[in-house]
Amino acid sequence: MKNRGGVLIANRGEIAIRIARTCKALGFSTVGLYSDADRWAEHPWHCDQSVWIGGAAPKDSYLNVEKVIAAARKTGAKYVHPGYGFLSERAHFVEACEKAGLIFVGPSADSMRVMGDKIRARETISALKVPGVPGSKGAVKDGTEAARVAKEIGYPVLLKAAAGGGGKGMRRVDAESEIASAFEGASREALGAFGDGSMYVEKFILQPHHVEIQVFGDGKGGAIHLGERECSIQRRHQKVWEESPSPILEKHPKTREKMSEAAVRVACHVKYAGAGTFEFIVDGQGNFYFLEMNTRLQVEHPVTEWVTGVDLVAWQLLLACGEMKLPAVPERRGSAIEVRLYAEDPKTFLPAPGPIGRIAFPSGPFVRVDTAFTGPGEVSLHYDPMIAKVSVWGQTRDAAVDRLRVALDEVRVESPRDEQGFRKGSLRTNLSFLQKLVRNEVVRGGDTTTDLIANHPDLTRDDPTPPSREMALVAALVQTIDKAHLNGSSVAVAPNSVSGWAARARQEGITRT
Question: What is the DSSP letter of 100?
């Protein structure tokens, strides 16, 4: 196999493993990175070499440009693939790579600056006659200016960070009395997440559908699209369910055509290189509005890979090493869905990191699991608490939904056990939420908007947890001993064993019947 050189993967977890697999298939050697928190993580073992780059906090490791560049130089890597998150949308990192003689697998610093900054992106799409959500023309300096803009465009509005995404630095505001405190909180969060507290204001479209267009550019003014993904099911402004094709665009094929053309037009204008995503809001009538562009590979890219048969990471790498010209628009077939399994409270969606014991995932010809966990491990409090992405493909949407339902029922994530076999602590995940979501009639019907979860409180309602097989046996033992004592019989047991087993049963939530 042709040796194409070394790729340093400037990321961690499931995305690092996913990139490493494609690198090896194409003949690239791989360099992984790990922090103090990832000393026992699985992703470094999937690379040919791995380099420790610092402390657990991202700023001391995965966000430290100097350390990442030094690791590439030390190992002789030729390319740097950023994955998503961390440094993937930092123009100064692209420039640092170029200065060090490294090839960045992604867009140029110039196109990243234009489209990665939400305010400059809005100015660009406006000049190209792409409809945008009404809002401020640039950053607003404080809550007073934000209130003035909000009054002009009408409530409700969204305060959004100019320098980032993922729901961070974002607040919905429904009245003027809320905007000052919302601005302060959102700006502070944006500063902590992106190093830039700049905010802008845009109109909040009621009952919107969130739809994105996947593009791929050659960096020379050419680009194609690979269809859309609908990401309307969200919690805390972050996606939890993504699918292609979009149910709302199936009803409005003309809108799909116009959105795809607009995304390609902008990508060509900025001479975009590699995989990128244009995000839009679509209302119930099929009107669409540009939101932002993510100048990187998306978490949900497996959905597009399912329906197109394309390996987007392979395309990125071959373009970066000069072995690929702009391909034809691929044919899209069937329907694909991805959900994200998180270590989080299924009621509040707040992160709940902790140790993992036994873990099991579904398998099959039309099921894909992207994860960095195949056995005992730990979801670190320092990073995103995603455990895995489960995606499926079907010839129809109904077939994909049914396949996802079966796949989610096969997922098992347990806390570790002590020497006696009892679970230590409890790891909370959103698995029960996902299982209810895939059975929800509105979801199955495909008419999903971004307020779906808020309108269906049953999705986040606590359900009684069925006892494990072991603890059911414990409860039966305790009940048998109790009945024996009531009947005046004797049961031979070790001293204190009954109280110990009963205490364990109570700890596990087992009650006597």
Answer: T
Q: Which residues are CB-neighbours of 140 under 8 A, at least 6 positions away?
A: 146, 149, 183, 199, 200, 201
What's the predicted TM-score (pTM) here? 0.84
List the catalytic residue out of 296, 332, 368, 428: 296
Q: Compute the distance between CA of residue 229 and CA of residue 245 in angstroms, rounded to an integer.
A: 6
Strands 49-52 and 79-81: unpaired
Q: How many other CB atoms are found less than 10 A from the CB of residue 487?
A: 8
Query: What's the CA gap between 340 and 346, in Å, rounded?
Result: 12
For 248-283, the pLDDT digits (tens) are 999 999 999 999 999 999 999 999 999 999 999 999
What radius of gyration do the chain's Cα atoms show? Answer: 25
94: CB partners within 8 A, 6+ apart: 104, 106, 107, 108, 109, 112
Beta-carbon contacts of residue 48 (< 8 Å; ≥ 6 apart) = 6, 29, 30, 31
Tell whether omega for the bond before 44 is within 30 degrees of 0, i.e. cis: no
Instruction: Confirm whether 296 is a catalytic residue.
Output: yes
Measured CA to CA in angstroms, residue 53 lies from 11, 278, 313, 355, 386 at distances of 11, 33, 24, 23, 22
Q: How far apart are the first and last CA of the chain?
A: 65
Window from 235-239, 276-280, 297-301, 388-392 with minimum mean pLDDT: 235-239
CA 472 from chain centre, in angstroms, equals 36
Q: Hey, which residues does 31 pair with through a beta bridge? A: 8, 49
Amino acid sitting at position 197: G
Show Cβ contacts of residue 16 under 8 Å, excluding neighbours closer than 6 positions: 9, 32, 33, 43, 46, 47, 83, 372
Answer whether 32's CB lies under 8 Å from 47's CB: yes
**Checking DSSP bridges between strand 103-104 and strand 79-81, what pairing results, if any?**
parallel
Q: What is the pLDDT of residue 237?
A: 83
Beta bridge partners of 202: 135, 158
The confidence band for 167, taking pLDDT boundaries of 50, 70 and 90, is confident
pLDDT of res. 509? 45
Encode pLDDT of 403-414 as tens digits: 999 999 999 999
Kindly list the distances between the CA atom of residue 114 and the CA atoms of 93, 108, 118, 345, 456, in Å, as whole numbers in the listed order. 15, 10, 8, 37, 38
Interatomic CA distance for residues 257 and 128, integer angstroms = 16
Sheet holding 386-394, edge to edge: 288-294, 273-282, 209-218, 223-235, 238-244, 335-342, 386-394, 367-371
